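Appendix B, example 12.
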Amino acid sequence: MADAYPAWSWNLIADLQQMWAFPFMVNAFRAGTLIAVGAAVIGWFMVLRGQSFAGHTLATVGFPGAAGATLIGVGASYGYFAFCVAAALVIAAVPRGGGADGGHESALTGTIQAFLLACGFLFTALYKGLLGGVTSLLFGSFLGITTTQVWVLLAVTAAVLAVLALLGRPLLFASVDPDVAAARGVPVRLLSTVFLVLLGAAAAEASQITGTLLVFALLVMPAATARALTARPVLSLALSVLVALLVTWLGLIAAYFSPYPIGFYVTTFAFACYVLARVGPPLRRAAAPRLLRVGGAAR
């Protein structure tokens, strides 16, 4: 079975030329780049706002959306976006806050996740044809991405980034200190609703590469890695995008030359970056006094 996959020759230029000779791989890299940028930016705000659980739920409900769309005979992409955005609106309908409100939001979010995930498996059971793409829906695939899908992803990513560019400053203010922002006239509730819709759209598009169970890797890990490296917002956001692009491109290359799902590679590379970001700085700080002593003794 392994012979069916291209062999890695260790000639990087030749390997990349071979890979990009196929239109489906060119589309995969275009789609992956768009998805990585959109997920990294929206994920950075998600981590800042402490809404990682909501992001995980919106990623998960893409599975029943895609399965339901396949069941009724329409493209899976429509199901991704319909279910993720609809779930975002339902979650946004619950007031966000501390105490009882925060617990209510978490309970509703978990309820939506469990119910819709069960619906996804029901839809796959009701499907009378050969639904061999269940693994792809859950764990991702780079095969079959069309030029039309790339254009759709470009439009979604551009729209998400454009809205974030317009709302970035008040959203950042409302995320850091919502009470003070509300006191100064910032529409915190409206911003929260818009953000959740954007998060749903980002989760829907990312699901088409990483799969619904592993889309969380692109939403949270690059942002968490960047925030572990620096507290400066602009630099942290830029690092989040760079990490997302790196792990997506490496994941596509690794998946092309192996029989394993791309979601596994993207998640593994993203996790490795996070571990390095968390472990690296403490190790450097611990080693610095020793290096200074060695340097002083040498002089």
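The mean pLDDT is 80. The chain has one domain: 26-298.
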